[in-house]
Amino acid sequence: MALDDVALALLRAQLGVIGRRQLFSLGYRRAQVDAMVRRGQLEWAARGVYRRTGTPRTRAQDAMVALRRCHGEARVSGPLLLALIGCEGYEVEECGFTVLVPPGRRLAPVPFDWRPDPAPQENSATIGSLPSVTPVRNLLELAVDLEDDDALVLAADRLRWRTRRGAADLARLAADLPDHPGVPRLERLGLLDAARPESPGERDLDVLFAGIGCPVEWQVWVAPDLRVDALLRDCSIVIESDGPTHEDERDRARDAERDRRLEALGYLVVHVTAADRRHPEELRRRLRRLRADRLEDRRSA
Fold first, then answer.
1. Mean pLDDT for all residues in the chain
2. pLDDT exceeds cutoff 70 at 246
3. HSE of 60 in the Cβ direction (CA atoms, 13 Å)?
4. Among candidates 241, 301, 234, 298, which has minimal Cα distance to 269?
5. Distance (Å, rounded) from C-alpha 181 to C-alpha 249?
6. Helix (H) or strand (E) holding 9
7. Strand pairing partners for 18?
8. What is the pTM of this model?
């Protein structure tokens, strides 16, 4: 007996994976399933779970096998989701995952990480064909599972760069789920603060800007396709942090075009270089002077 179109469609939707219970629900009998395994149409993947023979085995497929091992009553979280949505620095085949199961559910010893879902039925998504939590909710789960603070901060930064989902979105979710065990750690690390700089270089600059007389907003979208490193909003000064990626001729030309666009929008662009970092007080004096001049020009206009 061959797999019918419904079973084949389910296999395609589930990354080449299907559960024994799913086959039974489609009308296949136990003997028929066992025969398909013997003939090589299906191969055993885990208890009660099969993989279509010849399907490439990937990390995402491993996660799907784990979900079918839980009979579909589960969701995926973890670094794997960051990789699947394209966050820089995360490779799909190198990332782990955690399966969140309904409270009260217990699993026999299994070869994957799992724990009870602290907020079942909330913030569901499908990422890479996997039933999962949403990317922002995933940060709450990472706050439970990741031991290293730096790794958690990096995950938050990378998600923000990739999706524009940042501290404000995370803060709203934390307010909706105040009892989630990941919330206290996110608060301790400042990841719920919408004004927080998002990269190590910007966090270093944040210290340099102390005392310039106005708040600094980080990673601000000033146009639908144009985000700046920092903004002094009251005087429309944009601050860009220059690093190694700004050194070759093509990068300089791109930066110049970007500066022209910002100036056309009414912003003054200030580039902070390595030399500025070595002389922080001089940088602060320059920013205070530029801000004062801009505010005076506005009053005089």
1. 90
2. no
3. 20
4. 241
5. 48
6. helix 5-13
7. 50
8. 0.74
Distances (CA, A) of 137 to 1, 124, 268: 43, 9, 37
What is the side-by-side strand order in the sheet with 268-272? 217-223, 226-232, 237-241, 268-272
> CA 41, CA 36: separation in Å to the nearest integer?
5
Contact 172, 192 (CB under 8 A): no
Non-local CB neighbours of 172 within 8 Å, separated by 6+ positions: none
Beta pairing, strands 217-223 & 237-241: unpaired
- Token pair for 31: 């003997």
Q: Helix, strand, or coil here: 272?
A: strand
* Consecutive H or E run containing 82: helix 79-84
Q: Burial level of 109, CB count in 10 A (0-12/13-18/19+)?
A: exposed
Q: Are 200 and 220 in contact (CB under 8 A)?
A: no
Which of 4-8, 45-49, 56-60, 161-165 has the least mean pLDDT? 161-165
Angle (CA) 282 286 290, round 5°: 170
d(CA 174, CA 131) in angstroms, rounded, equals: 21
Percentage of residues in the chain with pLDDT exceeding 90?
66
Among 22, 116, 24, which Cα is nearest to 72's? 22
* Placement of tokens 């394209």 in the chain: 86
Mean pLDDT in residue range 229-242: 90
Cα-based torsion angle of the residue sequence 193, 198, 199, 205 in order, rounded to the nearest 10 degrees = -70
Residue 41 backbone phi and psi in degrees, to 5: -75, -35
pLDDT at 198: 61
pLDDT for 193-214, tens place per residue? 876 666 666 666 777 787 788 8
**271-300 average pLDDT score:** 90
Q: Tokens 């039925």 — which residue?
A: 121
